[in-house]
Amino acid sequence: MTKKNTPFTSAQMQHVAQLANLELTDTQAKKLATAFTETMEVVNRLQQLDISSVEPTHQVTGLTNRWREDEVDKSQEFTQEEALHNAAHTHNGYFVVPRIVNQDS
Amino acid sequence: MKLRSLTLAETRKKILEKSISQADVYNDIFASIAESNTELNVYLTTVDKKSALEKASAQISNELAGLPIAVKDNFCTRDMETTASSTVLKGFKPQFESTVTKKLQENGGVIIGKVNLDAWAHGSSTETSQYGRSLNPRNLEHLPGGSSGGSAAAVASDMCLAALGTETAGSIRQPAAWCGVVGLKPTYGRCSRYGVASMASSTDSPGPLAKTVEDAALVLNTIAGPDKYDATTSPKPAPDFTKTIGKSINDMKIGYIYHDLKGLETTAALFEPQLKVFEKLGAHVEKVDALDPNYSVGSYTVFQRGEVSSNLARYDGIRYGKDRSHFGEEAKRRIMLGTFTLSKGLAEKYYSLAQKVRTLYIQDYEKLFKEYDVLVSLSSPGFAKKIGATEGESMFGELEDMLLEPSSISGLPGISVPCYRDPKTNLYLGLNIVAPQWREDLVIQVGHAFERETKWNSWLNINESND
Amino acid sequence: MNQMTNTMTNAKPKYRLICGLEIHAELKTASKMFCGCTNNPFHAKKPNSHTCPVCLGMPGGLPVPNKKAIEQTIQLGIAVGSKINQFSKFDRKNYFYPDLAKGYQISQLDIPFCEGGEIKTPEGQVGITRIHLEEDTGKLLHNTVDNKKVSLVDFNRSGVPLVEIVSEPDITTPSQAKEYGKALRDLLRYLNLADCDMEQGGMRLEANISLIESTAPQGTLPDYKVEVKNINSFRFMEQAILYEMERQAKILDAGETPTQETRGWDSTKNKTYVQRAKEDAADYRYFPEPDIPPIEISDAHLAELKQQLPQLPSELRSDWETNYSIPLKTAKLLSPNSVAAAHVSDIFSLAQKSDIKPLEIANAIVNKKIAFSGTETAKEVIQHYQKLTQTDEVSGDELTIIIQAVIAENQDAAEKYKNGETQVIGFFIGQVARASDKKLDPKHVRSALIKELSQ
């Protein structure tokens, strides 16, 4: 049978939350650690299966080459007004976010 | 009998014969909404009856004859609030229309409102909705199931003539089973996902929930087919899905999948006698062994949460909606687990493994379909659970949907039709029928044959269900 | 800088540069990579005017790949001699940034369209590791609005097709890095795949720089590398590499290892600065893009792409040199892209048939002696050239009369000529041309003038 995994910790949860761009309270982190431990137990059962000769399935209906020709499609293009319509903060046709300092992308 | 309890097919017929008017239908459906929606908490948004009727009259000559349809609130509908039942999208009015709702409206369906779901379609109960849970119209102490719980409840409570839902792994068929309605999950890629808030992109499948198999086929006819805006839709043109309605199932080979799961023996004892109907209709039923669905739970959990963590990354509150602090607990839990299993060094161990296990299920089905035309099982291990059942259950949905997951992760079409009603609780069990990819025609044929031969459909057998 | 220059010019420098480049270029397509929006981020009339549910990351917006962009990437691979992966796929690269609408970038992780290949530079060839296709992000502008420091986001660039060309760490000098980059830019332009407007960010450079002891065997790689990002000119890249060589040499001299990190180039202070340390290196959580089925390029399709590819610039220019004696510098000016090059080739071949030296035509074009906008037919260009060199028939007597009149009017100059200041002949040629209403052959005029002046 599957051996029990080491339980997850709040610190691990905070690290994952940082990657996921989420903020967690200590209580939430603790609760999540418990849920992680439970869920990963179910997941780890997969290790029992022999998958040595199996390829992963990423596209279940076996399609390939679903590309489009290089044509401009005006039917889906938003006007500037439409594009900004649902935004909380805009300025002169731009979306506005707090100043980004360390641009690295 | 009230107009609201007519099926979509019957209503359409009467309108075309002019024995009733669209206004009669809309008056009664909106009356039903006025009577029940506050208690059931199904519609999050409804449109004004007058403007709906105006649209309907323009659509009378189209396939759905301008009849009122409810739409799960994860389909983007132009200028109509779309929330995916999350406060992150509170007030969000899309500037565009999803392909499926566009097609529905072009073919004579009129959207009369948007219905509740588990937030972001995460769940099988509607209890994760940030706008409150919906109730099961068959028994108000119970849940409608989910994630398309609002769609199933809207159909069951006659607050629409049919509804649209989405299924990633059980989200159409399980609530259909719990609410005693028909739910049809098409082959992955049969209906476009364009404009539907993505849950797990590799399995999300929009489809109809309806009163009867025929109604489901009618709605599917209007929404299926290739879409140039969704690269995962099949280029195959969609056939007429009503063609196999009424076709005999004589000599068909049906495999019955039974798994020795905890608690399943009780419901199986109620379910198995129903399979005799198939024998009576000339089909052959055999019990078959299939791969343990427990592994599908693990596989599905990993890739679904991985995809969820990425699909929900766009909700940052910059271009629309509110910031990420508005995500509810369940969404956070899924984003977190998905982020973890995709992180450096773990993606191979988990994500790739999950996708390999998925291959095992596909291979298992390929083997079974060499011998059987369709496979049947219960849709859900039990009856609708009571309110509050999800509390503290981090895998509630996955476990409830265990019998449906193998077919979902394999991209297969399936249908759930009512197959038993408990006279004490008025709650239902669903028969799940699964066919090879692109063979919706088979599940419709078998589902319809079963429905006509049994007394479980509450609209076709009004007296039977009122005992 | 001096210390380093000394090190460099010493017979035996202490360290050897190990450098590889990652170059991004926006492909020239009509529509974006994964949606039908207009691909024209630099000349859009308004910000956020070329967006749709897909490139704005709306709920349910789904990517559908642009076939032409895929073909362009493969053609670039063929041009540099890559192995083409006929089975390929897209992957999601997950990270959060306000200019990244979906919270992930669609890119390629383990199966890029092209692997291997090389680019020749005057200082030796540089290997290509891989070429893959991805999408660009939106653009951030930093501003102050209502006294608040904010960043403004424009998504017109979001989803523009972007190729990333990763080189092997084969570059050994800053100037070779520049030559490599220029060669790649010229190739992208020549093949009409990209405009590579560096100033606008249509082509962006990143250099991976490290040093190793000169005595280390060839092929040994240092155990660290410093990445310098967001360089927007070849000159800055050369400077950044030089700066890093000096900086890293000092650290190595002190017996330490430079920190593995990402740095930026500050072109006003002429130095690099830390952008991101290794500790918070991003975890991109790559996984196969579930919204896009894999790409399979058939043998026939690949053959077709090969066939469509024009003659490569290096081959064409060497052909011109062999057949028409066109020097490389002139050839480069006349072949900025394959379409122009093919046109010029036609002109050369017609020139030869018309007994005109192609080199003379080439010089006439380069020196703007004849109008050449690219829209003229080869025949027209030849005609222009002939007109330029054509002279009118003029009788000896008629010419003599004009010359004598000109000399009579310019006695001073004629004296100068006789006293040995023969350069005044040019002045006389000009005066004669002006005095005549015909187009005279200058050679003919010159000899007639010499004859008259010498009398």
Helix tally of chain A? 3
> Which range best describes the helical content of chain A: under 10%, 10-25%, 25-40%, 40-55%, 55-70% or over 70%?
25-40%
Distance between the termini of chain A: 46 Å
How much β-strand is present in the residues of chain A? 5-15%
The N- and C-terminal alpha carbons of chain B lie at a distance of 17 Å
Order of helices and strands of chain A: HHHEE
Radius of gyration of chain A (Å): 23 Å
What is the mean pLDDT of chain A?
Answer: 90
- Shape assignment of chain B: globular
Q: Which sequence of SSEs, written as H and E, runs from N to C of chain B?
A: HHEHEHEHEHEEHEHHEHHHEHHEEH
Radius of gyration of chain B: 20 Å
Write the layout of secondary structure elements.
The complex is a heterotrimer of chains A (105), B (467) and C (455).
Chain A: H1 10-19, H2 26-44, H3 80-84, E1 90-91, E2 94-98
Antiparallel strand pairs in A: 1-2
Helix pairs in contact in A: 1-2
Chain B: H1 8-16, H2 22-40, E1 43-46, H3 49-58, E2 67-72, H4 99-106, E3 109-115, H5 149-156, E4 162-167, H6 173-179, E5 182-185, E6 205-210, H7 213-223, E7 253-257, H8 264-271, H9 276-280, E8 284-288, H10 293-311, H11 329-342, H12 348-371, E9 374-378, H13 396-400, H14 405-409, E10 414-422, E11 427-434, H15 440-453
Parallel strand pairs in B: 2-3, 2-4, 7-8, 7-9
Antiparallel strand pairs in B: 1-3, 4-6, 5-6, 5-10, 9-11, 10-11
Helix pairs in contact in B: 2-3, 5-6, 10-11, 10-12
Chain C: H1 2-9, E1 15-26, H2 67-79, E2 83-84, E3 87-88, E4 91-94, E5 104-107, E6 114-115, E7 118-121, E8 124-135, E9 139-145, E10 148-154, E11 161-167, H3 174-190, E12 203-213, E13 226-231, H4 234-253, E14 261-266, E15 271-277, E16 287-288, E17 295-296, H5 299-308, H6 313-324, H7 328-334, H8 338-353, H9 358-366, H10 378-389, H11 396-409, H12 411-418, H13 425-435, H14 442-453
Parallel strand pairs in C: 13-14
Antiparallel strand pairs in C: 1-11, 1-12, 2-6, 3-17, 4-5, 4-16, 6-8, 7-8, 8-11, 9-10, 12-13, 14-15
Model description:
The complex is a heterotrimer of chains A (105), B (467) and C (455). With 105 residues, chain A is mainly alpha-helical. Chain A contains three helices and two strands. Chain A has helices spanning 10-19, 26-44, 80-84; strands at residues 90-91, 94-98. In chain A, strands 1-2 form a two-stranded antiparallel ribbon. In chain A, a hairpin with a 2-residue loop joins β1 and β2. The longest helix of chain A is centred in the middle third of the chain and has 19 residues, at 26-44. Chain A is flat and about 55 Å long. The termini of chain A are far apart. The mean pLDDT of chain A is 90. With 467 residues, chain B is of the alpha/beta class. Chain B has helices spanning 8-16, 22-40, 49-58, 99-106, 149-156, 173-179, 213-223, 264-271, 276-280, 293-311, 329-342, 348-371, 396-400, 405-409, 440-453; strands spanning 43-46, 67-72, 109-115, 162-167, 182-185, 205-210, 253-257, 284-288, 374-378, 414-422, 427-434. The longest helix of chain B is centred in the last third of the chain and has 24 residues, at 348-371. In chain C, strands 1, 2, 6, 7, 8, 11, 12, 13, 14 and 15 form a ten-stranded mixed sheet that branches. In chain C, α3 (174-190) runs antiparallel to α4, α11 packs across α14 and α13 (425-435) crosses α14 (442-453). The termini of chain C are far apart. Chain C is an alpha+beta fold and 455 residues long. Chains in contact: A-B, A-C, B-C. At the A-B interface, α1 and α2 of A face α10, α11 and α12 of B. β2 (94-98) of chain A pairs antiparallel with β10 of chain C.
